Structure formats: structure tokens, C-alpha cells
Amino acid sequence: MITRSQIEEVQSKWGRCLVEIGTQKNNKEVYTAATDAMLHNLYAFDFGEVLFKPTKATQKQFRLNFEAAKSYFIGGNSNYSEDLGFALQPWVLVKFVNKAITLNENHAIAMGNYFFTNLAGEEIKVEYTFGYILDKNQNLKINLHHSSLPYSHDK
Known about the structure:
Elements: H1 4-23, H2 28-42, E1 51-53, H3 66-74, E2 91-103, E3 107-118, E4 123-134, E5 140-148
Parallel strand pairs: 1-5
Antiparallel strand pairs: 2-3, 3-4, 4-5
């Protein structure tokens, strides 16, 4: 059975990876390697498609493969020209606040808000739903990543 602490550990790793990628924004070789490692270690692309719908994608908002997800985080892929590199902001802190988690034997889903703190100390709230599965080595990996900015009542 997947546990809440396993979910929280993957979320914590995800946040640390995102911050680390941003600290290397002036060294393309290093931030590319860090992004590759994050995607290999935390996402289930080795199982096939990952249902990935990132926050700031509007033209090609669904990213089902490794290269598409990588482009969202660090840009540089001409197939996804809108990508500026979300991880390269940079962010200094990422905090998950889970509203609900469903746990099963081999898969789990968490939803809530996560908060991204930028260099100016401003915190941006984003809504998320992440799905998780266990790989053959019992490592928890993300197989669903959906995030969006909260709805606004703009007139």
C-alpha cells in the first residue's frame, strides 16, 4: 500500500529539484542534466505516456512524453515555442499543501495547492492534481501531473 509519507517525500523531492534547476539557470549543461534526472527519477515515462498538463501551457497544453515535459521545465524545444522554462524562473521554495490524498495498493492521487516563492519573496498559488504509481523497484513515480492557476472572477 502506498503511504501518505511516500507521497509527501516525492512532493518534497519535486520541489527541491525545481529549485535546484533554477539555481543553475546560467549553466545550460548542468540544468539540462538536472532536469533529465528529475524526469527520470520522479516521473513514470519509463511506463509510457505520463498525463502531464502544466500550468502555463496554452498552445500545446498536454505533454505526454519526456521531451515535451522537459521543454516545459527548461524550454529550448522548437516544438513547444511557448515554453520559457518554468523551472528557470528561478524559484527559491516550493511548498505542497495537500487537500486530499487517495491511497491504493499500486497507485495514489493527491490534490491541493502548491506555492512557488520567487526571488522577490512573492508566493504564487497554483492548484494541482498528481497521480502516482509504483515502479518495479517500488519507487513512487508521477504518472499524472495537472496544474492550473486558480480561477479568477475578472469582469
